[in-house]
Amino acid sequence: MASAAYKYIIVGGGVSAGYAAREFVNQGIKSGELAIISKEAVAPYERPALSKAYLFPENAARLPGFHVCVGSGGERLAPEWYAEKGIELILDTEVVKADIATKTLTTSAGNSFKYDVLVAATGSTFIKLSDFGVAGADSKGIYYLREIREADSLIEAIKSKKDGHAVVVGGGYIGLELAAVLTMNKLQVTMVYPEPWCMPRLFTSDIASFYEGYYLSKGVKIVKGTVASGFELDAEGHVTAVKLKDGRELAADIVIVGVGARPLTTLFKGQLEEEKGGIKVDGFFKTNNEDVYAVGDIATFPMKIYGEQRRVEHVDHSRKSAIQAVQAIKAKEEGRSIPEYDYLPFFYSRAFDLSWQFYGDNVGETVSFGRDEAAATKKFGGYWVKDGKVVGVFLEGGSAEENKAIAKVARLQPSIDSIEALASEGLAFISKV
């Protein structure tokens, strides 16, 4: 049983870990002070690539091309970078126990690691159909996507089931992105989700109707208002069809499930304060333990702009929260102060030749603009208005300048004269702010 000690340890090897490592270097850590312990076998990478470019039939993304921090326009941190900076990259290693009182992490192999300061960046994992009691949910041919090894398995399945049937269970981020890329791979795709429209946590029915119509035009079939209840299997236990709760069956050579995620906080149960499903932190991502910080998906933090605690599952927050935590750690050591985290919610997606961005909060009344079925361009969007102020903006097909402008609107929350006036102005409203 081996043991080692580091001044700083990051547990988790996803997006947050990579951005935290870069910030530690920017802040001037010494060689040998930092270790990253990751369950994955590869250095931190930009996870959104897995549901997009990694599965492309042509010109697919491959490592080392999308290691962090290329997703935000920064330097690509290949494995050699960590060695050059004196950072210990401990891969293919799962931490199974965290003892906060003794500042000790224990791995599945029985090795222990001591730290002075811990950055918890364990992220999320997918919710499985077996969590809902769906019979046969672990059968062959059923896939989930979170890590690169799962993407590799899916690629092999796509190759072996050429021109076959794929069923995507779920109508959110992952469902929409995977339905698009599977269609690009010339599979016959059907999406199944229980809600009345896709992406219900963000999209209005009006916004969703555009995307559903577009997907239908690309050959994607959509089944709404029902869920998978079981599977037909062949003699080898491989799925051949998805049984739906409403009695229908869908032919399936491949089933991909994207029904949500849950934060990986088990290591810290009973040791760190929790709230709203995550680990409660302050505006510097410090937990109730002075020497433990939690970032990314697992952190429930003060959303300063809205005056409430929230947990956010998105790559943009994963990057920024990691940077904030490391800056706070170093500032504390040096007796300096830094501003509290002041995050503006940001979500985006790309699928087929579509690309949308959303900033702010999707609460209050909604105002759609720009929808013109006859127009050659696909630029349209929507505003969310609460208490006479624009608090959220969605834009499909925006330019870099327009996307920057909608972020400014969501941050400033300008007052409007009336809902009718805003609807009449449409996208032109952003130029006034």
- Overall pLDDT score: 96
Largest sheet data = 7 strands, mixed
CATH topology of the largest domain: FAD/NAD(P)-binding domain
The helix tally amounts to: 8
The level 1 CATH classification of the largest domain is Alpha Beta
Helix content: 10-25%
Give an overview in words.
This protein is of the alpha/beta class. It has 3 domains: 3-125 and 262-334, FAD/NAD(P)-binding domain (3-Layer(bba) Sandwich), CATH 3.50.50; 129-259, FAD/NAD(P)-binding domain, CATH 3.50.50.60; 353-432, Enolase-like, domain 1 (2-Layer Sandwich). The chain has helices spanning 15-26, 79-84, 148-160, 173-184, 205-217, 315-334, 400-412, 419-425; strands at residues 3-11, 34-37, 88-90, 95-99, 104-107, 112-120, 124-126, 142-143, 165-169, 188-193, 221-224, 228-233, 239-244, 249-251, 254-257, 261-263, 274-275, 278-280, 292-294, 299-303, 308-311, 346-351, 354-360, 365-369, 380-386, 389-396. Strands 1, 2, 3, 4, 5, 6 and 19 form a 7-stranded mixed beta sheet that branches. The longest helix has 20 residues, at 315-334. The model has no long low-confidence stretch (mean pLDDT 96).
Labels describing this entry:
single chain; 433 residues; alpha/beta; FAD/NAD(P)-binding domain; Enolase-like, domain 1; 7-stranded mixed sheet; monodehydroascorbate reductase (NADH); FAD/NAD-bd_sf; redox-active center
